[in-house]
Amino acid sequence: MVALSSAAQEKEQKIISPDVHPDNTVTFRLKAPNAKEVNLELEGSSSAAMARDDQGVWTFTTKPLSPDFYSYTFTVDGVSQVDPGNALRNPNHIWQSSMLHVPGGSSPWEEADVPHGVVHHHFYRSQVVGDQRDFFVYTPPGYEPHSHKKYPVLYLLHGFSDYADGWTAVGYANVILDNLIAAGKAKPMLVVMPLGYGAPEILQVGVGSLDHDTLRLPNYQKFTQALLSEVIPQVERAYNVDKKRDSRAIAGLSMGGTESLLTGLNHLDQFSWVGAFSSGGLPEDFDHTFPGLDSKANQRLHLLWVACGTGDSLIKINRQFRDWLKGKGITHADIETPGVHEWQVWRRNLVEFSSLLFR
Amino acid sequence: MVALSSAAQEKEQKIISPDVHPDNTVTFRLKAPNAKEVNLELEGSSSAAMARDDQGVWTFTTKPLSPDFYSYTFTVDGVSQVDPGNALRNPNHIWQSSMLHVPGGSSPWEEADVPHGVVHHHFYRSQVVGDQRDFFVYTPPGYEPHSHKKYPVLYLLHGFSDYADGWTAVGYANVILDNLIAAGKAKPMLVVMPLGYGAPEILQVGVGSLDHDTLRLPNYQKFTQALLSEVIPQVERAYNVDKKRDSRAIAGLSMGGTESLLTGLNHLDQFSWVGAFSSGGLPEDFDHTFPGLDSKANQRLHLLWVACGTGDSLIKINRQFRDWLKGKGITHADIETPGVHEWQVWRRNLVEFSSLLFR
What we know:
homodimer, alpha/beta, Immunoglobulin-like, Rossmann fold, eight-stranded mixed sheet, globular
């Protein structure tokens, strides 16, 4: 609670945005009296010019939208900003955006009246990376520290620019698992969401750094090392988990998709379920990136699930990688979905992938 | 990760704000080419006019600031907005603001290389309020579910407009406890941070609703009921806690300060340590609000700690309340500190109050 300018700010609150109407059209509003041009950038839609009224309030109303979560920003005279009237925002190191929720439907990412798991936030000093960092652990409904029941674990990795809370705060992974488990569509499991940067300085350099080996390779290597030597041991000490490779999965989105492939396929002694959603920054020399990987892996892999949206510019490298897998005779699921490089795709990926695990 | 406008947004990132210099002066920058007037509202400072350069970038540089966390916003032609270049923000239902971190010093809210506790995020359906809601539980370093050691518990309440994560995301309560415990200045304890709204519709009405009994009384009553009949039983089932009143404290800020007084002082069978930081929305008829409370309470209260900043407009009602306590012969700590109605005050309150507990 910040009191200093509260009266002024509370008055501003009368500008309602986003304003979801009963027919699922949505009106966005921004007061910017001296702006010359304001655009709405909404996930899944083209940039839309907003219109100014005589009070200096810019408005745009969408066509009816499917119930879902949508990221959006306003561009005011060329400068991107979040919606000042909307408390729902996507935490992100680099790209700031607001969140629109069009409620309704029975999507697995809609909070429902089902038993809920718990999300545990852990903090530790990484010897591998040399920083203070964090990870999150989802325990399913009914998880009981004092029981002897052992759970399988999905290690779930965020993308470049996300914080460690990407999969919970934006991906609603805990809500998705709650709902799938309640419906009998996913096995009760732990989901561990570690910080995905082995070389956090790539955040300063920007997303382009994932196209160059100087930073991306140390970033991937140290991530894998921190996961295997620091995060997994902490998780297995603190929680009732089945430590066998049959009960250990790894998956992630974008940078985290690449990290899942690198960590999973190069450590088949540790993981037997691997998922990659819209992998980004994947080194193109696959023979060198996955040394020795061949069809013998089929005996060890319960699932290799490689997905990408057809509207994503990364579809090309993902197709090349799947072709390489095919050439090597490595069994995998070829998944192409509608959509671009955004969370609406990854939530659906998680729903599908997690439903297949540990069966 | 949002890719659509990433190139454009990444380019904007070249505007660095906030820019903390080695001498602890801070430069704020905002690109707003067509704005006529831009002001910086910084916690602890007066509103400051920013100056425009020929690129449309508005700038202001502060005097040297003490290491601390500071909330701030920009006011652009009368409209409040967060800093688009800064990922650090304060989650809040109503007032959106960015966060400046001036690092350095050994303040207890600075993350340090000490053993860390874990923050657990719980979700449940409240029968009392009739909604899906959440609470957070901090377990201290060394907490071990399988041990028989029982911990005391501080129930710590946020203010009006905060989410349940107010005390962790903005107040750094977990960092503060980690540091105090490592220094031997606080006893290892659990800190439970529940959602503080008994009648969540007050969020729609605004902060003024805390001045009127129609909404505030049901809000307080149902909060107390949900805490006593829903949150405490869940906590005591899931964690190793000492259930005796000697090991149970309650404290909060602003609306949460009032809730701590109402819940604590009217349930001395349950709580024996009570703290109120900058209490807001406190009903003025104290005799009616605390029926039967008199000096006999001194035998049951280990601590009643009533604090307010001298620059806070709520200092008046807090002084009246302390006078009433004095008149009743109820022992309490009269705490007046510098500062207004802001988090810099409440972090310091928590440091002082938690250091006194369970001794």
